[in-house]
Amino acid sequence: MTSLSPVSERAIVLAPMGRDGALALMMLNEAGYNGVIATGLTALCNALEEGAGLLIIAAEALRGVDLEPLLEYLHQQPAWSDLPIVLMTHHGGAEQNGSSHLSGLLGNVTFLERPFHPVTLISLVTAALRGRRRQYDARDRLIDLSESELRLQRTLETLEQQVEERTAQLRSNEEALRQSQKMEAVGQLTGGIAHDFNNMLTGIIGSLELLRRRVSRGKLDDLDSLIDLGVTSANRAAGLTHRLLAFSRRQSLDSKPVEINQLVTSMGELLQRSINESIALDMRLSDPLWTAEADPNQLESALLNLVINARDAMPNGGNLTVETSNRHLDSVFTAAYGTLQPGDYVELSVSDSGCGIPESLMGRVFDPFFTTKPIGQGTGLGLSMIYGFARQSGGHVTIHSEVGKGTTVSLFLPRFVGEMVVAEAANPARLPFANAGETVLIVEDDPAVRVLVSAVLKELGYAFVEASDANTALPIIESDQRIDLMISDVGLPGMNGRQLAEIGRQIRPELKVLFITGYAEHAAVRGGFLDPGMQLITKPFTFDLLTAKVREMIRAAASQAEATGNKVQ
After folding, report:
1. What is the per-residue pLDDT across 463-507, written as a single tens digit (0 to 9) for each?
2. Where is each Response regulatory domain found (predicted)?
3. What is the 3 state secondary structure string of 355-393?
């Protein structure tokens, strides 16, 4: 219990008439209590400001005087305080009724009838002071509680600040880790690209240098081998860029209905040649199998990659299984794979009984240039290409492996929904030569590509007009120049090739457009990029492919013009 000052427990006595005040103070002093006599109500209020434990007041001292100062003090007490008052009255009569009225005004009042015995007074004072001490204790507890709440609030504020600082630090650490992982991945990626491209460029540059030397010396025999060497290296470089685009999901896919069982069967001989005699190839093709929607060329490349990976995982022989099946993937399955939507899919899986992949490496198998094969035996782009191809096709790829038991890679491709359309085969006899006056507009910002395309068209007998960008091409399109076909790069500086084609078709509604691209984010899926009368080929392309596309599209334009009775402009 808190120790109180004498002033806080003293009794203030107001009894101006007779000897009641003096007698009451004497009794208090004899009992060991501190007290003081007030000469009037004003003196009592002044003494109250200094402190008091209780008031002892004669009832007649409160009649006919202004009680407002005392009542104001009592009403302004803090919530913990209820000052006890001993009101001395006379027995019976009107005074008793007046005292009851004072009790309602003053609050915590105890009546003491005169004449009173000293024991009665001391008993009332003792009880009043005991209650007063409890009020002081409540005050102290409230103060302690307020201080505790203040300390708690400060602690919470400190904790909030620490949490904010810790959160900021964690975010900073997370960003640093992400940047570190990004740089590690970029380093691994660029290192792998540099290694492979340097080998390929060596073959290309070396063969060209040897060709130049032999031609300058007049040695024109055995040039085919050097040409083949350069072409082979260039094709390997093209394959590498296609795999990189597949991993990044930026390649141009020619998605169409695919009968996967027919595709696998047609590749049977190639797959058998790709493995050795110690590996047993088992084809388990489900019948009937839904038609899938995918790029068949990319799918063939993916299947061949999976079979070669399975072969390399079984150096001492084993079993290799290629299996197809219809799968309906519900939301429970697809929820674990991000963008994969529930629905019907065709599953193509390749399983081996080889060495398996350790659990610690499973999280990295789809990373570019990551491989578990010895140095020089794998680029590390096979699975990353398959992953990118599957995701870009609207499907997914999963891998399950157990060390010592083997690995299964499953490719899920969406089921084709729609009507099957059989493509009309082009007549090779109509492809080689141009008709008189047929003209092609070439829009390409790379001078080397422009020169090569122009050379091919010239050999085929086509007239051509060149433009380095869309701004240069537009005046030609707006002129009276005959244009049977526009060949345009997609990634032109400023206005891109697709925007140029839109404007060109507003001017010439029947304009045929052949896009060429090495990388085009918005040309990633041809079905959403090409309108009727538009086609797309990817760099690097063969001249045979360019020739076939040009002849096919110009013939289509000529046929359409003949059918409508219009001339090509």
Report:
1. 999 999 999 999 999 999 999 899 998 888 888 888 899 999 999
2. 439-554
3. CCCCHHHHHHCCCCCCCCCCCCCCCCCHHHHHHHHHHHC
Phi and psi at residue 531, to the nearest 5°: -90, 170
DSSP state of 441: E
> In the numeric block, which tokens belong to residue 413?
């491709």
145-169 pLDDT, tens digit per residue, is 888 888 888 888 888 888 888 888 8
Q: How far apart are CA 444 and CA 467, in angstroms?
A: 7
Count of CA atoms in the C-beta half-sphere (13 A) of 38? 24
pTM, two decimal places: 0.42
Per the prediction, the chain carries an average pLDDT of 79
Q: Report the run of H or E that residue 45 belongs to, with start and end.
A: helix 41-50
β-pair type (343-352, 318-329): antiparallel
Which residues are CB-contacts of 263 (< 8 A; sequence separation ≥ 6)?
296, 299, 300, 303
Domains of the chain from N-terminus onward: 6-141 (3.40.50.2300), 256-414 (3.30.565.10), 428-564 (3.40.50.2300)
User: What is the residue type of 297?
Assistant: N
DSSP lists the bridge partners of residue 90 as 114
- Structure confidence by residue, pLDDT tens digits, 8-21: 888 999 988 878 88
DSSP string, 166-225: HHHHHHHHHHHHHHHHHHHHHHHHHHHHHHHHHHHHHHHHHHHHHHHHHHHTT--TTHHH
Mean pLDDT is highest, among 206-210, 270-274, 341-345, for: 341-345
Task: Give the separation between CA 301 and CA 396, rounded to whole angstroms.
Answer: 16
HSE of 561 in the Cβ direction (CA atoms, 13 Å)?
18
